[in-house]
Amino acid sequence: MSSIFNVSHLNVFLALFLFTALFISFLFLSRKGRTLYLRRLDGVAAIEEAVGRATEMGRPVLFVPGIDNIDEIQTLAGIAVLSHVARTVARFDCSLIVPTRNAIVLSVCEETVKESFTAAGRPDAYKSDNIRYLSDDQFAFTAAVDGIMLREKPATNIYMGAFYAEALILSETGFASGAIQVAGTASIAQLPFFVAACDYTLLAEEFYAASAYLSRDPKVLSSIKASDYFKIITIAVIILGIVLANLNPEAVPLLQKLF
Amino acid sequence: MQNVKLEREMKSGGLDKRWIFLAVGALVLAFLKLPLHLSYAPNQKTLGVYKAIEGLPSGSIVYLSADYGPSSKAELLPMHRALVYHILNRDLKIIASSVWDSGPPLIDMVFKEVCEELKKQGKEKKYGIDYVNLGYKSGQDVAIAKIGTSIPETFPRDYLGTSVNQIPLMNGVINFSQIGLLCNLSVGSPGARQWLQQVQTRYKVRMVAGVTAVMAPDLYSFYQSRQIEGFLGGLVGAAEYEYLLKRPGFAMSGMNVQSLTHFLILGFVLLGNILFVSEILRQRKAKEMKSTST
Amino acid sequence: MVKDKVPVYITIVVGVFMILKFFVQLDFIKVVADELEQWCLVVFALAIILGVANILRLNLRIVLRREKDWPYKLVVVVSMGVMILVGIADLAIHGDISTGSGFQYLFQYILTPLSAAMFALLAFYIASAAFRAFRARNIRAILLLVSGALVMIGRVPIGASLSPIFPRLSDWIMTVPNAAGQRGLIIGAAMGMIATGLRVIFGIERPYLRGE
């Protein structure tokens, strides 16, 4: 058995098993009718108002789904939020610009926005020219998005996805152009820049919970509850580890081996 | 939304930011060439990188992944040069590659510069024997995972198109079991985090990193858990490394400007707070006068 | 509908294989997972064709019809065309695009300085963002201001010249409170990533499929 199973990854397997068990448990509970509570996320709640503002001003909404590839989880989470934003934009009869850094992300965003407009009953309002592939180069993409902000003057900028060094350049330019800005990312190094320059920021796991908040789908909410409870277990294990390490320092190498 | 507007006005009030840009630009231009004779005290993270390379037995192979582009050349090129110099000077070998498409020309350029420098010191380094540039592999995280599985399968040819079977340095190199140290230079993604996830955690290879100053806070947790033995953070890290090698370069000369710019920014922060406090006092006074008059 | 179900099944199968590869040491799993990774690399590399097609479709039409901002679109199309043609010419004539080629020249003397200039903008933007963000509004903001100032002074050699306490304080702030906060954020982000990943693998959330 040990020759089939990679024993050095046993701890990861157990953690994954526990997480999945929690997920399935909450899924089961939600199917039985239990309401799963999710606290208010200011940034997400502000999106509808921000889109309304853009409609009043007659200016577009700019949505940047991050600069990473489709295999990055943050990009997938950002596109899930894009779907809801696109539906809101369609309802408000506003326009939506989505610049992308990657051609595969472009294809997915095109389909997402098209279907969202159709679902909102406005297939005629969809403009494929507004979903644009700009460049694979990080700063060429940034310069192009800055150009869009300064020329087309969107009233609302939404940044949802993976961002790197260009985060501050995008958000400062957006601030200077007078747009309301909502950001969400799990790129921890860039969070301080978004907090400084944006009006609302979703921090790390709040960003991942955004699509659950918007859809209120019990299946999606179950995964958020599972991660919350798993975090509680992690905190308990950390405290236990601290206590054990202080009571018996010789146990530290064994604890390190376990984790 | 009303509160957002008010908050925004308060945030930007006081000074047109073009004055800030002008001041920063003027300071950089003025002090670019002025020596300040600063003293250096390399921190434990920089020393960790230095000791990791110093401690390798002669002939060990270092795998260097230069995952950055021309935009971050200013911060990462000095540390790239310093690391390659240190490794080759100690008669260690380097296998270099990149998962950024703009990486290989930079790798090529640094190898040429450092080998020229070492040649003047009487140390001849040969391509294919002492170092090799395997070029770029697309696919980001997936490419890194594949490199961890098998280096020759991921890079069947080097940057110049030569089959790796014909490169003496690649003889016997299959995966990271044959690698003494993994050294990653990165500015974002894919970068140090992905190498940690896909290679260091799976194959338990020793690792050091060089990152931009913005990415450096990310690596403190991994340094404390000993997943990386040390890292260089930004131009300061590069300057400290040049200081340890006793080889002053661009990083040490750039420290003049960076040191003074930090103080300039602190000056602006102080000014911003003075303006903020005076605005609050002015508003309070106006409110008092209004309530007195009514 | 088959059109909706097939991508979901593909996602589930591929996702499960990649997870199994991490835990199971069977040759069959490794061979299939490695092959899938290779396919992934090929798809990523070919995706550039999609990007080029999109740029040409969008920008050429605007240039030909002289619509709004057409000069900027012309620059995009011409720049792209020149890089592609020079690269192809170098490959055809010299056999590579390494040092000394026209492609390298354009990369080194046009793209490199432009990218470096964009990155350098960060220095100016950080100064203006710091001016705006570091305001002593309340206790937490004061803590942020003081710790930011100490780290800025301690991280440069001039701080060490002023007093050895600055680098020590700066190091303590980065190693203790910063690392603790970072670790908490990393753990939280990892939980979110696992939750989202499992939702995608199990087909509960399908953002790749019209954002559902």
Describe this protein's structure.
The complex is a heterotrimer of chains A (259), B (294) and C (212). Chain A is of the alpha/beta class and 259 residues long. Chain A has helices at 10-31, 42-57, 73-92, 103-119, 138-152, 167-176, 191-197, 205-215, 218-247, 252-258; strands spanning 61-64, 96-100, 131-133, 156-160, 180-185, 200-203. In chain A, strand 4, helix 6 (167-176) and strand 5 (180-185) form a beta-alpha-beta unit. The longest helix of chain A has 30 residues, at 218-247. The mean pLDDT of chain A is 89. Chain B is 55% helix and 11% strand. In chain B, strands 3-2-1-4-5-6 form a 6-stranded parallel beta sheet, sandwiched between helices. Chain B is elongated, with a radius of gyration of 24 Å. The two termini of chain B are 31 Å apart. The mean pLDDT of chain B is 90. Chain C is built from 7 helices and no strands. Chain C has helices spanning 2-23, 27-64, 70-93, 102-133, 139-154, 157-162, 165-201. Classes of the chains: A alpha/beta (259), B alpha/beta (294), C mainly alpha (212). Chains in contact: A-B, A-C, B-C. At the B-C interface, helix 2, helix 5, helix 6, helix 9 and helix 11 of B face helix 2, helix 4, helix 5, helix 6 and helix 7 of C.
Keyword list:
heterotrimer, A: 259 residues, alpha/beta, Rossmann fold, six-stranded parallel sheet, 60% helix, 10% strand, B: 294 residues, 2 domains, 55% helix, elongated
Q: Brief overview, please?
A:
The complex is a heterotrimer of chains A (259), B (294) and C (212). Chain A is of the alpha/beta class.
Topology diagram in text:
The complex is a heterotrimer of chains A (259), B (294) and C (212).
Chain A: H1 10-31, H2 42-57, E1 61-64, H3 73-92, E2 96-100, H4 103-119, E3 131-133, H5 138-152, E4 156-160, H6 167-176, E5 180-185, H7 191-197, E6 200-203, H8 205-215, H9 218-247, H10 252-258
Parallel strand pairs in A: 1-2, 1-4, 2-3, 4-5, 5-6
Chain B: H1 2-12, H2 17-31, H3 44-54, E1 61-67, H4 73-89, E2 93-98, H5 103-120, E3 131-136, H6 141-149, H7 151-154, E4 181-186, H8 192-203, E5 207-211, H9 216-224, E6 231-233, H10 234-245, H11 250-293
Parallel strand pairs in B: 1-2, 1-4, 2-3, 4-5, 5-6
Helix pairs in contact in B: 2-11, 4-5, 4-10, 6-8, 10-11
Chain C: H1 2-23, H2 27-64, H3 70-93, H4 102-133, H5 139-154, H6 157-162, H7 165-201
